[in-house]
Design brief:
18 strands; single chain; 27% strand; 25% helix; 11 helices; Fumarylacetoacetate hydrolase, domain 2; Fumarylacetoacetase_C_sf; alpha+beta; 2 domains
């Protein structure tokens, strides 16, 4: 069984009855945007046929939607053949990600680069690098005069890296993680390339941003990463990041209101648990308090001179860097098939997925054309 059998109710935020949650479900006829408010679920498809259109409308008035009853009565599942299936909470938004936004992730990326994607060399490189720059990278403000001075010193020592450039330089790393409509939701399988031997999850907070650049809510995400591919060459980033089922988001987007704001995002801790069928357990965490760049700065850099008519989501990066050995001493962590990955936060809920290969994960088949055809059949495009 590739999907997660646990009830979706267990994945909701601790205070979900006081939260306004935005998501998508398939009730048998196709993707449907929903709002969850005070424990009740509302079909919003007659107000706006897509999540992107609902966000563009600027208001989230459940009175305009159709009640589907209580959340408990809907009995959502992640199974493909379920009568009520929970989907990834986004649809037409672009999927962007910020990389190397924490000091530890910067160090780990340099390690991958210096080890040329060979996990067995990582311990030696890690020790030398942390001894030289660990404290400096953690304390320096990106783009500052101190950052420029550190860069000059590291260049002189022959230790500069393109990853340190985006970690402490003026420009953040912003890349496209996944095609529109390809993301996996809560409970679905996540994919690792079948030819990868060194990889890991990346637990992150994900912001939902409208077409004007306003941040309207947040959720959780797994920016699945292939360390061996990116370590061989940064030019392999797309192969390391963008694969079938390699991006999960959910379970719901929590919209900003009087009880949840961007300051909650800034103060959030994200926990991670990996449970393997071999009995291996790894626990980790990522604290947004330690991010090097403020979320608003990352959104501004993602906007740049772009235009996102359907808005976008932005992965904010992760502090988590798995180094606990799984099998051979010195080889650190890598996924095995069947691993269950749980990413959680009290205000955002829990995103749970099981690992398989990108080859064996369900194919991504519903593209933009297919979605438009489905909405037309349901007479929703006039909404």
């Amino acid at each position: 069984m590739s999907h997660i059998a646990a009830p979706v109710l267990s994945a909701l935020p601790a205070d979900w009855r006081n939260a306004l949650l935005l998501g998508r479900v398939d009730l048998g006829d196709g993707p449907t945007p929903i709002l969850v408010s005070r424990g009740e679920v509302f079909d919003m498809s007659r107000v706006a046929p897509t999540v992107s259109a609902l966000v563009a409308g600027g208001t989230f008035d459940t009175a305009a939607g159709q009640s589907l009853g209580t959340f408990e009565s809907l009995d959502l599942s992640a199974a493909v053949d379920a009568p009520a299936r929970l989907l990834s909470p986004i649809d037409l938004q672009c999927v962007k990600a910020a990389g190397v936004t924490f000091a530890v992730s910067a160090i780990e990326r340099v390690i991958e680069e210096r080890a040329r994607g060979d996990a067995s060399k990582a311990v030696e490189v890690r020790g030398r690098l942390e001894a030289r720059i660990g404290g400096s990278v953690r304390s320096v403000v990106p783009g500052s005069a101190e950052a420029a001075a550190l860069k000059a010193a590291l260049i002189e020592d022959g230790m500069w890296s393109q990853y340190l450039e985006v970690a402490i330089g003026p420009d953040a790393e912003i890349f496209t993680k996944s095609p529109t409509l390809s993301t996996v939701g809560w409970g679905g399988p996540i994919g690792i390339r079948s030819d990868s031997t060194w990889n890991n999850p990346e637990p992150e907070v994900v912001l939902l941003v409208d077409a004007d650049g306003a941040i309207v809510g947040a959720t959780l995400g797994n920016d699945v990463n292939l360390r061996d591919f990116e370590g061989r060459s940064a030019l392999l980033l797309s192969k390391a990041k963008d694969n079938n089922a390699s991006c999960s988001i959910g379970p719901f987007i929590r919209l900003f209101d009087d009880g949840f704001s961007l300051d909650d995002v800034r103060a959030s801790d994200v926990t991670l648990k990996i449970e393997g069928e071999d009995g291996y357990v790894l626990d980790g965490h990522s604290s947004m308090r330690e991010i090097s760049r403020d979320p608003t700065d990352l959104v501004t850099q993602a906007m740049s001179e772009h235009h996102y008519p359907d808005g976008f989501v932005l992965f904010l990066g992760t502090l988590f860097a798995p180094t606990k050995d799984r099998d051979e001493p010195g080889r650190g962590f890598t996924h095995k098939m069947g691993d269950v990955v749980t990413i959680s936060n009290p205000k955002l809920g829990a995103l749970v997925n099981r690992v398989t290969t990108s080859r064996d994960a369900p194919a991504w088949t519903l593209g933009i054309g297919g979605l438009m055809a489905n909405l037309a059949r349901r007479n929703l495009l006039d909404a």
